[in-house]
Amino acid sequence: MAKEKRLRIFHDETAIAGELIIHTKLRDELQIKSKAEIVVAKRRFIFKVKALKTVEEFKIFGNPEDLQSKGIHDNSIATIRAPIE
After folding, report:
1. Phi-psi map region of 18: left, alpha, beta (phi>0 left; psi -120 to 50 alpha)
2. CA atoms within 13 A on the CB side of 24
3. Is the pTM above the cut of 0.85?
4. How is 4-68 classified by DSSP, letter by letter?
5. pLDDT (tens digit, 9 = 90+) per residue, 31-81?
6. In order of start, what are the domains of the chain with their CATH numbers?
7. With b meaning 16 or more CB within 10 Å and e meaning fewer, what string describes 62-76?
8. What Rg, from alpha-carbon coordinates, does the chain have?
């Protein structure tokens, strides 16, 4: 099983600030429980996770204002994994 994946992160107006939307298969594959860590340009961020079957499997979605305030632009490549304890 993969411990982390490099995927595109997209802005989505329906996402709540501080929360990422991912596919349920991705959540299960990476063994993510309620929070995920993403790394973009060597910066780490922790987000709550909402898993849905209706979103695309290999994409991450987040709130535009929240992501931009952290310097994460639309269509950026991010590494996602379960938080390192």
Report:
1. left
2. 3
3. yes
4. EEEEEEEE-TTSPTTEEEEEHHHHHHTT--SEEEEEETTEEEEEEEEEESSS-TTEEEE-HHHHH
5. 999 999 999 999 999 999 999 999 999 999 999 999 999 999 999 999 999
6. 4-81 (2.40.40.20)
7. bbbebbeeeebeeeb
8. 11
